[in-house]
From TrEMBL:
It is an enzyme of class 2 (transferase). Signal peptide: none annotated. It comes from the Bacteria. It catalyses: 2 GTP = 3',3'-c-di-GMP + 2 diphosphate. Residues 253-382 form the GGDEF domain. Its EC number is 2.7.7.65. Pfam families: GGDEF. This is diguanylate cyclase. The keyword Amino-acid biosynthesis does not apply. Keywords: Membrane, Transmembrane, Transmembrane helix. PANTHER family: DIGUANYLATE CYCLASE DGCM-RELATED, REGULATORY COMPONENTS OF SENSORY TRANSDUCTION SYSTEM. InterPro entries: Diguanylate_Cyclase, GGDEF_dom, Nucleotide_cyclase, Rev_trsase/Diguanyl_cyclase.
Amino acid sequence: MTSLDLRSFNFLAALQCAVMGAVLLGIRHNFPSNIRGLRYWGLAPLLGLGATGFYALLGYAPALLVGLGGNGLLMACSVALLAGTREFLGQPLRWWPWVSLVLVCLVGLFVFFVIWPDYRPRMLIFGLGMAAICGAHTHVLARHGHGFAARLMLVAMAWQTLVLLARALSTYWVDAPDTQRFDAGSVIHMVFVATFSFTILTVLVSAQLMASERVRLEFEHLASHDELTGALNRRAILRLAEQAHVCWLNMGHAYALLLLDLDHFKHINDNHGHQAGDLTLVRVASTLEQGLRPLDRVGRYGGEEFVVLLTTSDLASAHRMAERLRVRVESLSADTNAPACTVSIGVALVQAGDASCDAVVGRADRALYQAKAAGRNQVSLG
């Protein structure tokens, strides 16, 4: 009766996981292309269902076919889960070590099926091979995973690794040479049979949560960043400026705003084309970002204008930063895709009596106009 229950549970769990895998495969096309790994996560439970199909043939097909087919697909399922997680976390899988491991394990299983028939060394080889794959999965999650879903997947894979090691190392105590996969036995044997399907189910739930969280972060990023340059958009940078203004009112931490405008940008578009103009904006935004302190922020104010928020500053420091950024932009060399360019910069520091950051923006804007009127490619204080 225990054997029947274990077989039934194994099949139903594998079928449920396969449905979830099919859903992952179906919805992956609706996710942004930079969210990777869903293909392997979706393929894994289908391989697991194939392994369950092989195990269901036990007693009806040659034991060698059932063992090699089922165990091989189960190991492939684990490698696919690992590949999906590594791709999702931006750590592509090196396939050859894992393919080699699976092949070596299958050769070992063949030897102890045909030459020296004994279930125990087969269990030892399979359990240690699977533990190596699941242990690597646990390791990559521990190093690169973040958030609740990744931690949930980590716990599931760590538990799976421990169960596999316990099952493999205990085989000579709890098994006989002629033990079958679904034989009634010790508690650890029953836990081993049930754990893998539960682990896949947990991993798939975690995968869907991780993918959904990544989509949410993508939308948040799009809502706060300029699509072309990657800098903060106008609403986001002004919201941060307003927060800095509240900090100034409450704690007296002065901030400064730099308003930058690319000189003769219309000439760039007219003489080199709009693609060159777009690339110029991207290069300038990147140069500004690289020249700032960790807590400072840059945003695209509109068109060819950028605004820089110096979260803690005085007027002299803000002027030095503005001059530094002006020189960085001026030093950008021309190439075949984008010409050289310069920027004019207006600088303004928050002052007593400023009701909001709008007053600071207004002074920076007037200073920018003065810089342009004085000949461009220079810094003016407001």
